[in-house]
Amino acid sequence: MEFISGVKQKEDISISQLLTGNYIGQTVRMRGAVHNVRDMGEMVFVILRKSEGLVQCVYEDHPDRAADRGADTAAGAARSDGKDNEAGAPAAPADSMPVPLQLSNLKNLKEESAVEVTGRVAAEARAPYGYELRLCGIEVLSEPDEILPLAINKFKMHTSLEAKLAMRPISLRNVRERAKFKIQEGIVRGFRDFLMSQGFTEVHTPKIVSRGAEGGSNVFKLDYFNKKAEMGQSPQFYKQTMVGVYDRVFEVAPVFRAEKHNTTRHLNEYVSLDFEMGYIDSFEEIMAMETGFLQYTMELLAKDYQKELEMLDVKLPDVSRIPAVRFDKAKELVAEKYNRKIRNPFDLEPEEELLIGRYFEEEYGSDFVFVTHYPSKKRPFYAMDDPEDARFTLSFDLLFRGLEVTTGGQRIHDYKEILKKMEKRGMDPADIESYLMIFKYGMPPHGGLGIGLERLTMRLLSEQNVREASLFPRDVTRLEP
Amino acid sequence: MEFISGVKQKEDISISQLLTGNYIGQTVRMRGAVHNVRDMGEMVFVILRKSEGLVQCVYEDHPDRAADRGADTAAGAARSDGKDNEAGAPAAPADSMPVPLQLSNLKNLKEESAVEVTGRVAAEARAPYGYELRLCGIEVLSEPDEILPLAINKFKMHTSLEAKLAMRPISLRNVRERAKFKIQEGIVRGFRDFLMSQGFTEVHTPKIVSRGAEGGSNVFKLDYFNKKAEMGQSPQFYKQTMVGVYDRVFEVAPVFRAEKHNTTRHLNEYVSLDFEMGYIDSFEEIMAMETGFLQYTMELLAKDYQKELEMLDVKLPDVSRIPAVRFDKAKELVAEKYNRKIRNPFDLEPEEELLIGRYFEEEYGSDFVFVTHYPSKKRPFYAMDDPEDARFTLSFDLLFRGLEVTTGGQRIHDYKEILKKMEKRGMDPADIESYLMIFKYGMPPHGGLGIGLERLTMRLLSEQNVREASLFPRDVTRLEP
Lengths: 481, 481
What we know:
The structure is a homodimer. Chain A is α+β, with helices and mostly antiparallel strands. Chain A is about 30% helix and about 25% strand. Chain A has 14 helices and 19 strands. The first copy, chain A, has helices at about 15-20, 65-80, 105, 160-165, 170, 175-195, 235-245, 285-305, 305-310, 325-335, 350-365, 415-425, 435-440, 455-460, and strands at about 1-5, 25-40, 45-50, 55-60, 115-125, 130-140, 200, 210, 220-225, 225-230, 250-255, 270-280, 320-325, 370, 385, 390-395, 395-400, 405-410, 445-450. In chain A, strands 7-11-12-19-18-17-14-13 form an 8-stranded mixed β-sheet, sandwiched between helices. The longest helix of chain A has 23 residues, at about 175-195. In chain A, about 50% of the residues are buried. At the A-B interface, strand 1, strand 2, helix 5, helix 6 and strand 7 of A face strand 1, strand 2, helix 5, helix 6 and strand 7 of B.
């Protein structure tokens, strides 16, 4: 009987291993995609693309290199002389066996081939990371069928967003494109790790629902075994429900909005970072928790994603303190400073959001600002009204460089109060009975928020279009790739 | 201007703080739900439910306790004498101000109220964790409107699955019910943390797609701005695509299957733990990676989820080595040992899976078994056929106590080869052009797997129905809660 007993070390090395400096002078193997081949006549540079970065490999057909090449051949031979393949892999097919390296092998190498190179590690100041591989062998693991239609191996692609998105599966291979989503990974890690440290429990709630949390017409409808169903606009009802179970919960999951806007800020499917916390004394605690998340995450990015931040020229914002301003006050400040008339006292126009962002940047040097006490009529029924003035709610948005990236607030926890608010809005409690159940049988004071991951990423990267921050964006016209 | 500068320590303490033992003899505050009130005449026990567990609080109306009560009142007074509320919360409304504690306050306490208790910490061997709070004050933060219709405060609920699911928002408050999903959290943490340590990148791919990866009729269809769309059955195409970008990727996200089966093993929406890895030498590497994940996760559960494992009587399986057997061989072994006729050589019936599980338990003491080399006709077009016998594929399922919890394998990476296989199956390449693009322009040898989170949880917990392992299950008849 064969047994599988866990991960075995592979024979090829990673970039982190290379960077230890322990391999200088040694012959190693590395695997990756052929990012670029530069033919310099007697010399060929092959740039290998790995997940962690690029590796410069060089081969020189020159008498001075004969000694090296002798060594290389020896190393190449050692390779096939039977060192156990620990993963129990079958032998490589005969047609891909390593052949003695010649310049012509490299000159004919197709970009985007998957290869394993063998080479001696040398310090080389002009190479990425300060190391290069002096090649002595190359094995082609797989080859493309066609030549790339766009220059993903340029540092900047200089291609329109439309063209990039049409070829997304390939354009993401560009090192700057993929760096964006590495940073996005860091944001999600920061969210989870920070909330775990604060006693939150991660939950997974259904995305096919009988009724959306926000209501309205911007829902995708589907037929669920002859019943009407919708794609969840938000995990709102479920995360509140789970506060009754775990006190503090979070979820990272897709949400779906059938909004017909085709703007630079909207996606029809996006990743929502949601949390909800019980036993709060005030809605300020929710803003404090979000500030804590941002502080933790900026530190994490600075620590683990420095390479990507540098590549994209990202300057991390200062989040040591974030100003908070009332909705009505924010409108006044902006109207006054920028000579703007307040047209609608109950709503913020995108332009007004931009000006509020600008105001707090200019006056307080802050990229972020909490706008609090949104008008009740602009918030969903479950939002808690301000006991001091019921026209406003104990809620907030977080603006990041003038763009709303978060909506949050305290929720009603009292059964009679939520029924009253629903009645006032002409809603039928029977429609959401299983949600109202949590209030009927008791809920602590609580609140929470939802953060749009792509918007947060977009602003952090100073991108102008939210599609730049989504691997495979969904918008009114885009359902593929 | 008000500024928010991050999370402030709250004045109430957590169970972990209580367990430090540093609070013995001190008067502390704790917040939680009233899980149970036991009226013993002169004495009342209040069991507080917090996310981390239960806390026993006791109040005795007895002359011997007069001293304590005096101290309590002092502490209660100290509370309102103006210690700064660090979170900047507004003062509590007058109707919930703490009142001098009397037996009658506690006797009238409604279960599922949210409260803050004040009490002196005492060692008490009979209490959970060995500590109790001698109450001196209680503040009701919120009250339920109605009395619970089911006894969630019993250790075991003795309620039918149907009844539990109908009242899911409430029944999850039972400590054993919620412990299941705490363990589920641990599985997901294990998956992510382990894969991160192995150089994987986390990705988020769209769930609204133009065409499902698995094909067939079991897809939920929706109207996407007058275009036909589907809910993703699997992130298959996208995770393969991302191997071209990051070499190794994973995703934890919902998948949707419109299967009409109403069995104990099927859900119509579930959480899929997916990974995909490039530059593999063989499909055994994928099984090795999964084994590594299981090893890491069992250790994590033993370390951080001991309380929940004990509560649910879970014995963690031995995953130091997992047997791997060929599909055809497994059928033979089972037919021979259990006197069973092989009816269909190309498929495994659920009963056969159970027997294979039993066989490897009996013969090798293993709860897990990899079944490899599934017949090609039973696998999707992108599966790589075995070069030694094209009737079979380089693929596997992982069975856990006789239930399939994972499907994985090596994928075709060559453009011409995948076109050939599609042609043989009568598929039109134009339908999935943006997926096929990755092969046309070059992909490394790669493979991966998808794990059904709820099935893995169900088997680990020895539950008989997969619905027990889903917070809010979706099945043919269930769209709520």
